[in-house]
Design goal:
The chain is built from 21 helices and seven strands. It is α/β, with parallel strands linked by helices. It folds into two domains: about 5-370, no CATH class; about 385-510, no CATH class. Strands 3-2-1-4-6-5-7 form a seven-stranded mixed beta sheet, sandwiched between helices. A hairpin with a 2-residue loop joins strand 5 (about 470-485) and strand 6. Helix 16 runs antiparallel to helix 18. The chain is globular, with a radius of gyration of 24 Å.
Length: about 525
């Protein structure tokens, strides 16, 4: 029964259900509309498939992007045992939608510790519910959720839960979540260490607890780096390695306007509240160092998975900033005091919430704010011929060797024998290109491509098209939001070829067109 006492739980549950359902659907539509590239949707699907089949996380995309210098083992790229959680869900229901659902669910669950920590610090259920809503609606979190599937999506719920349990002296539960954080990715070890420093800054009496529980974080990082070197001998020291974070003092001079705007927008989205309490900025240090001194310009844009690392740290800072405002007395002679105006700490979350709704990636009213980022909702409906597409994809049998266009790769992965034709596009530098690297004398059983990749396929596979037959071709279209109230139809064509096939096509659309101008935006392959 609904009552004031249980209303926060019902509101939180409703928020989690709505967010999970909406983001699962919208990210699935992107997948169905062939808008999810190899990095990282294809990588994620191939990893869970190979975990189920071999017990280890193998994938081919990083091997291709490095021209064969990196290992097929994903643990040589990132130490991420949490990928087995994705694999478990995929084993129960083997579909890309399963991975998208798991990610959206765990992202939404971050609203629970956001609420609990706010309630503990601020003592107001209403403000705490607002903070929980702000976490779910802050644009960078939504944009990261729209970007395929990533292990970093577990960071918000794990970090804020560990932080909350630590502040309430529930140390065993806190340790459990800190250990879970260590299984997400090696970079999260830095968050564990700086979270401990921030907690000690707020309560120095916990110093011994910090030494006992969290000194393991840098040790774990060193051991994980050693694992990288065993699997990929050329990996180097991850923070400094060119193919990883490439941190260097000289990088501070690169892309300075971009970095300044990035941090101004991040702080602006949190109402500059973290600046109210300087101690709450300790947890921001790791990502500040990476985004400012790192070698990849994508570290300081809003379109990728990195928001999962910085946003929970800023949400925690926002909570402590609100606490500062809450205890800041109004001058007795001020107009606000005389008129008994609503305290600032109550107004700021409402103003931020309105701002988030105006600039939401779910329906980008002000498109210049989000240009040129790809991870906004432009796709609301699946393609008109999704049934024919599924039939075409299902013609590729299990365990077949496959070569596929970048944005088709995730639909026809059949284990470790599947390779992508990568389209690489750096949104900051504006450079783009095609990356082709296959095993020697590789002759795939099936080739699935867009017409724009036909010539690259001829270069990549010497026996194509002479020893291949057209098995099927599907054309279709889907609606794309291109401006305020403006919808356009995007057409596409997909062709499937089989080695040694000489019969007539088994699946052909009523009209075949050759489309050479399909937009193939994709992310940089730099880690």
């Amino acid at each position: 029964m609904f009552s004031r006492q249980n209303s926060p739980a019902l509101i939180l549950a409703a928020g989690i259900a709505v967010y999970t359902s909406l983001l699962t659907y919208l990210s699935w539509v992107q997948y169905a509309d062939l808008r999810t590239p190899t990095f990282d949707m294809g990588v994620s699907i191939q990893i869970v498939q190979t975990i189920i089949r071999t017990g280890l996380p193998y994938e081919t995309a990083n091997w291709v992007s490095s021209n064969g210098t990196q290992s097929f083992n994903f643990f040589g790229i990132h130490f991420s045992p949490v990928r087995y959680l994705f694999a478990g869900a995929y084993w129960v229901y083997p579909s890309a939608a399963t991975l998208l659902f798991v990610q959206a669910l765990f992202v939404s669950l971050g609203s629970l510790p956001a609420y609990k920590l706010s309630l503990h610090v601020l003592g107001s259920k209403r403000i705490s519910l607002l903070v929980s809503g702000l976490y779910l609606l802050i644009p960078p979190i939504i944009m990261s959720n729209l970007y395929d599937v990533h292990e970093e999506s577990f960071v918000p719920v794990a970090l804020m839960s560990a932080y909350y349990f630590y502040t309430t002296r529930q140390y065993k539960k806190s340790i459990l979540f800190f250990v879970f954080m260590g299984l997400i990715q090696e970079s999260v070890d830095a968050l564990i260490f700086f979270a401990a420093l921030q907690l000690i800054a707020f309560n120095f009496n916990d110093f011994r607890q910090f030494l006992r529980d969290h000194v393991a974080a840098p040790v774990a990082f060193v051991l994980e780096n050693r694992l990288f070197l065993i699997i990929n001998p050329g990996a180097g020291f991850i923070p400094l390695a060119p193919q990883a974070y490439a941190i260097s003092p000289l990088n501070i001079l690169n892309h300075v306007p971009q970095k300044v705007v990035y941090w101004l927008v991040l702080l602006g989205l949190t109402g500059f509240l973290p600046l109210q309490n300087k101690k709450a900025l300790i947890l921001v240090i790791p990502w500040f160092v990476v985004s400012v001194f790192g070698g990849n310009p994508d570290f300081s844009v809003f379109f990728f998975q990195y928001n999962f690392i910085i946003i929970p740290a800023l949400i925690i800072g926002m909570i402590y900033g609100l606490e500062k405002l809450q205890h800041k007395p109004l001058p007795s002679g001020s107009i606000a005091f005389r008129l008994r105006m609503i305290p600032l700490f109550k107004k700021v979350p409402v103003v931020l919430l309105i701002g988030y709704l105006l600039f939401t990636p779910l329906y980008p009213l002000f498109s210049p704010y989000l240009v040129p980022g790809p991870h906004v909702v432009q796709y609301y409906l699946p393609p008109s011929n999704s049934t024919s597409l599924d039939q075409l994809f299902n013609m590729v049998p299990n365990n077949a060797t496959v070569l596929a266009s970048d944005y088709l790769f995730s639909h026809v992965i059949r284990g470790l024998g599947s390779y992508p034709l990568l389209h690489v596009n750096n949104f900051t530098s504006g450079t783009a290109g095609t990356m082709i690297h296959l095993p020697d004398n590789f002759k795939p059983d099936y080739i699935l491509i867009f017409p724009i990749d036909y010539n690259d396929t001829v270069i990549a596979v010497k026996s194509f098209p002479s020893s291949y037959g057209l098995l099927g071709t599907v054309i279709g279209e889907y609606p794309v939001l291109t401006g305020f109230g403006s919808i356009q139809l995007q057409k596409f064509q997909v062709s499937l070829y089989q080695s040694g096939y000489s019969g007539p096509p088994k699946l052909v659309s009523s009209q075949i067109i050759m489309i050479r101008t399909m937009n193939c935006n994709s992310r940089s392959v730099a880690l």
